[in-house]
């Protein structure tokens, strides 16, 4: 398989001058020094994001001791789960320079479809769950194909899918919620505790974070994601099948969306066909706060997780403090601005 | 990537425009055409949404009346009760279809005012329902007396928590009449009749189940000694129920809801929820269409049509009278 060759004007992508596969570094210890500047830079960003999260947690803990109770901290994780899973998947899309607006309603549609599979068709639990996740992947696949083959800008293509999914969810469900009370074990997917004290939904979030990080940093898909995002033309010229990999990226995001829909339905023990609008913006906000640039070419999974946690923590902290809801949204908007601005400043200094 | 040709983009853009115009859920059970000069009168109902089963019950009542009075009724609503702009678009579109009468439940009374004037100018009678509209244009409002209904909920809350303690409200919004009236009705009753009850700052979840669940959890975490929580509409109440269950506090905190729906009914039956106030959604739909027919025939209408509300809990949930107004 041909390696991706030099892509001009890239900074911190995985496609710099010589080969950057882990194996090549293992074979060439004299090159380990190369890793240091970018590693420190990358880690510095993450450390900064993590530090911000810590500061926020400490602040709220001081203001209200109830904030740091184990129960509440678990609550924060649980409230972050659905948006967090969406954000993980869409990090890939945003790194390629694209955008995914159908996350919210698409998630609802997969929840509804899962409801059809499990409740109306009576499929066994694992089968229905798998079909639900695959339907999410299918939505992503359709998005990717529309964008890659028809040349429709991602904003428009996913906006169209968002509307279609919205309507389909209502049509398929007959505008009525689908309840999973008859499906044994379903709600345990989100609320059960395989590990004591850790709700399964949160466990799924952590596992997906690890999987996403591995895919982004250690696989071909990850490398091409960065390549396409940094410079699509150059990637194409150097032989990357941009179309195919774009479809793969959106399909992956769709699969994550399917899992998010599953966890949402499990937590509420019902598929609510009219919900979902707005979740895509929360997911994108989480990705952006975590340091991923909307212009593409740059991003990290851990950053996304931290971004989602920052929003979830601030929201929860403000509620515990009983801050008026109007001010809550103002503050969160400011947090997003600050996070993105800090990241721009940092990148401005780091660039050569 | 070079463009594939403007033609295709143009077609897609046009398709999108059409899709956006049809965005949200609309349905024409009677498959009516323009309605003017016609056989059967058409009445266009624009509700606050499809998010809760409540609206499906309203629609049922409307369709029942449509059959009875031999008119055609269209029923539509935006995707969620926060989509004010979408509802305004729908109202505009409904007006442009030239119906014989319009039924409207405003998400935001102020935003709908210009369209109300437009309807008046075109001589299309407007019947307000549920939230009503803050305007002189509607000939009548078929609705629940939300203030009184919320006060009844407060009365039961005070009784169930023993007259003192902390109480929280999870309301859907503060721009619709129902949100405002239920919040105020509840708080006013408590202020006047139960000075030992402390009301925590009101939180708004938009009627979104997940949001309301997370919100309520935060409230309970911040106030572990909380005595009772009131969910002011179906979505909010479901969020409260979920949160109480998740934290294992079912039975410890007094939960009172609003409207019905399977989730709340089940919660009352298993004891998680103490009780709720139900409106008469089928009655609301029915009375709105009936009033519209009267308006078309030029008959006089009262200022308000009170469609009624009831308290229900485990003890009377199976009564015939209550069952008639509940919906799943």
UniProtKB/TrEMBL annotation, chain B:
<dbReference type="GO" id="GO:0030246">
    <property type="term" value="F:carbohydrate binding"/>
</dbReference>
<feature type="domain" description="Periplasmic binding protein">
    <location>
        <begin position="43"/>
        <end position="300"/>
    </location>
</feature>
<dbReference type="InterPro" id="IPR028082">
    <property type="entry name" value="Peripla_BP_I"/>
</dbReference>
<comment type="similarity">
    <text>Belongs to the bacterial solute-binding protein 2 family.</text>
</comment>
<feature type="signal peptide">
    <location>
        <begin position="1"/>
        <end position="23"/>
    </location>
</feature>
<dbReference type="GO" id="GO:0030313">
    <property type="term" value="C:cell envelope"/>
</dbReference>
<dbReference type="InterPro" id="IPR025997">
    <property type="entry name" value="SBP_2_dom"/>
</dbReference>
<keyword id="KW-0732">Signal</keyword>
<protein>
    <submittedName>
        <fullName>Monosaccharide ABC transporter substrate-binding protein (CUT2 family)</fullName>
    </submittedName>
</protein>
<dbReference type="Pfam" id="PF13407">
    <property type="entry name" value="Peripla_BP_4"/>
</dbReference>
């Amino acid at each position: 398989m041909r390696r991706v060759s030099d892509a001009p004007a890239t900074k911190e992508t995985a496609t710099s001058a010589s080969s950057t596969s882990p194996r090549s570094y293992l074979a060439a210890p004299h090159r380990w020094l190369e890793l240091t500047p970018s590693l420190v830079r990358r880690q510095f960003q993450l450390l900064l994001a993590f530090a911000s999260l810590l500061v926020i947690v400490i602040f709220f803990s001081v203001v209200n001791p109830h904030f740091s109770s184990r129960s509440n901290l678990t609550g924060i994780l649980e409230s972050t789960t659905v948006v967090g899973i969406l954000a993980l998947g869409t990090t890939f899309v945003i790194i390629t320079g694209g955008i995914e607006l159908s996350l919210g309603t698409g998630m609802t549609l997969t929840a509804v479809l899962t409801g059809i599979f499990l409740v109306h068709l009576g499929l066994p639990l694992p089968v229905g769950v798998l079909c639900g996740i695959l339907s999410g992947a299918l939505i992503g696949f359709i998005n990717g194909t529309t964008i890659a083959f028809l040349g429709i800008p991602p904003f428009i293509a996913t906006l169209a899918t968002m509307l279609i999914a919205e309507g389909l969810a209502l049509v398929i469900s007959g505008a009525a919620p689908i309840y999973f009370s008859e499906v044994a074990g379903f709600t345990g997917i989100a609320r059960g505790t395989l590990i004591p004290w850790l709700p399964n939904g949160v466990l799924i979030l952590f596992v997906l974070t690890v999987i996403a990080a591995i895919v982004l940093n250690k696989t071909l898909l990850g490398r091409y994601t960065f390549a396409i995002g940094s410079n699509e033309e150059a990637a194409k010229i150097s032989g990357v099948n941009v179309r195919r990999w774009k479809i793969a990226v959106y399909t992956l995001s769709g699969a994550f969306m399917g899992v998010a829909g599953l966890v949402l339905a499990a937590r509420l023990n019902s598929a609510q066909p009219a919900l979902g609008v707005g979740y895509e913006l929360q997911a994108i906000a989480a990705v952006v706060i975590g340091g991923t640039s909307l212009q593409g070419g740059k991003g990290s999974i851990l950053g996304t997780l931290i971004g989602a946690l920052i929003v979830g923590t601030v929201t929860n902290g403000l509620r515990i403090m009983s801050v008026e809801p109007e001010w809550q949204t103002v503050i969160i908007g400011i947090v997003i601005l600050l996070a993105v601005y800090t990241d721009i400043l940092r990148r401005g200094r780091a660039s050569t | 990537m070079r463009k594939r040709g403007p033609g295709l983009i143009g077609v897609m853009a046009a398709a999108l425009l059409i899709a956006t115009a049809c965005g949200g859920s609309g349905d024409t059970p009677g498959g009516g055409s323009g309605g003017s000069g016609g056989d059967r009168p058409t009445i266009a109902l624009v509700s606050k949404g499809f998010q809760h089963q409540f609206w499906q019950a309203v629609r049922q009542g409307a369709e029942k009346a449509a059959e009875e009075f031999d008119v055609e009724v269209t029923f539509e609503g935006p995707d969620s009760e926060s989509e004010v702009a979408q509802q305004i678009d729908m109202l505009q579109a409904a007006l442009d279809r030239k119906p014989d009468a319009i039924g409207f439940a405003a998400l935001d009374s102020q935003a709908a005012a210009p369209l109300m004037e437009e309807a008046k100018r075109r001589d299309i009678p407007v019947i307000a329902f549920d939230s009503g509209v803050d305007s002189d244009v509607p000939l009548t409002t078929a609705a629940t007396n939300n203030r009184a209904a919320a006060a009844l909920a407060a009365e039961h809350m005070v009784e169930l928590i023993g007259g003192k303690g902390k109480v929280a409200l999870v309301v859907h919004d503060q721009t619709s009449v129902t949100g405002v009236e239920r919040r105020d009705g509840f708080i006013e009753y408590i202020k006047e009749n139960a000075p030992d009850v402390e009301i925590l700052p009101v939180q708004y979840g938009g009627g979104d189940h997940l949001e309301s669940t997370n919100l309520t959890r935060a409230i309970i975490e911040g106030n572990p000694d909380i005595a009772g929580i009131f969910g002011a509409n179906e979505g909010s109440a479901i969020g409260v129920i979920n949160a109480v269950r998740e934290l294992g506090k079912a039975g410890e905190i007094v939960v009172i809801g609003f409207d019905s729906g399977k989730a709340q009914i089940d919660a009352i039956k298993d004891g998680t929820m103490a009780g709720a106030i139900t409106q008469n959604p089928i009655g609301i739909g029915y009375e709105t269409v009936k009033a519209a027919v009267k308006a078309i025939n030029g008959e006089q209408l009262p200022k308000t049509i009170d469609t009624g509300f009831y308290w229900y809990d485990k003890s009377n949930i199976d009564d015939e009278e209550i069952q008639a107004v509940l919906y799943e």
